[in-house]
Amino acid sequence: MKRELRKAEVLFVVACVAVVSRGGQLGVGIGSAFGTQASFESDQVVLPFANDPGAAAAGIDHVYDDGYNLVDSSGNFGNETTFWGYQNEAQFDAATDTIRMSSTRTLIDTAEDSADRDCLGALELFWLQNFTSNKTFNCGFRLAARWQRVRVAGAAWSGTTAETYTDAYALNGISAPSAPFDGSYGGGIGNPVLGDGPTRSISTAAGSAVMISRTLDGHLLGFDFGPTLSWDLGERMALVASAGGTAMHIHSTFSYDSGGLVAGETTDQEWLFGAYAGADLQCRIGEGWGLFGGVAYTYLEDFNQQADGQRAELVFADSCVLRFGIYTEL
Length: 330
Description:
Blueprint: H1 2-21, E1 24-34, E2 37-42, E3 45-46, E4 62-64, E5 67-69, E6 80-81, E7 84-86, E8 92-93, E9 98-108, E10 112-114, E11 120-130, E12 137-158, E13 160-170, E14 181-182, E15 194-195, E16 199-206, E17 210-232, E18 237-258, E19 262-286, E20 289-300, E21 303-307, E22 310-315, E23 319-329
Antiparallel strand pairs: 1-11, 1-23, 2-10, 2-22, 3-9, 4-5, 5-7, 6-15, 7-14, 8-9, 9-13, 11-12, 12-17, 13-16, 17-18, 18-19, 19-20, 20-23, 21-22
């Protein structure tokens, strides 16, 4: 019984489509999409320390590019530790009787740029139904599904800053051991001690420029729907104009590379809404079929995507599709 009902439902839908489609057209076309614009921008990017010095506080571990000051087996009794080390004699400051240890990290400055506009493929399937049957002008309705590829890429130079944290530790009157020196966790007689409460200073210096490359690669699947006006130009030629609303679903991947220092990517998807207008010139080739060529302009909401402080914006205000294809009369 259920199977018979399903067959009846299918036959009913087919019958309705056949009645409504009488005097209509079904077509498929390919094209090239162009005019999509993009802009990229980024916040300042702070790269992590290779060796993180930690907070400027006593009683905790500190690791540097040129040494270390760690908690020893006594728990740094008396605010001193035997578990420390440094790499070269230049780190000893005789004027302040301290050992200086440093760690440096890189800061990548903000960067903005506009993207290239790539012409990419589009595929469209449409159904057009005329509601009148005049010899010259006819009104109707057009429904289309369109897949479109979008790819925009940009690159901009950005400056970098080297930020150095330098901590000074008091020797408290002992003689600095010759460098390089590595102390002992267990301490004991003969192990020189070093104060564990650092005095911190921070300095910056300009670094080298890096190229920040960013790419947004996406697929759009949309639907156009709106009224049409057809104008017969002769026995075989016709001009068809259409305008209406559009809804587009975008699925995209945004990736970036900051000169090899840091890279990443993210994916996103969203529905965009807007309007379209298009015109096609049709040429009837044979009985019940023909070729067409035309252009479609689409206006959509802007699309924004971000990853790790990097941002991309797509602007469809000047997006167009040049298309051509084949249609059949129903």
